[in-house]
Write a structure and sequence with these properties.
By secondary structure, the protein is of the alpha+beta class. The protein has one helix at residues 10-27, and strands spanning 6-9, 31-35, 38-43.
Length: 76
């Protein structure tokens, strides 16, 4: 069951902004900011950033550190 978003007047949001942001991040619940009783903004949690799956992101390019068999002079 999804919980209804909490509503808060803009003046209260202004005074408690940092605390509200922390609460939204921790509780994962939205807050609707109102002006004169009408919704004007919604504070929502962003998707958590965790470990990015690397499967399929790495491509084998062969041996990149062994000599290639060609002579070269680094001073040219």
């Amino acid at each position: 069951m999804k919980r209804a978003p909490r509503q808060m007047p803009a003046g209260e949001f202004k005074a408690k902004c940092l605390r509200v942001l922390d609460d939204v991040a921790a509780s994962r619940h939205e807050v609707i900011v109102t002006k004169r009783g009408k919704p004007v903004a919604k504070v929502v949690p962003i998707a958590p950033t965790g470990a990015v799956p690397i499967e399929g992101l790495i491509v084998w390019q062969g041996d990149l550190v062994s000599p290639v068999g060609e002579d070269w002079d680094a001073e040219r």
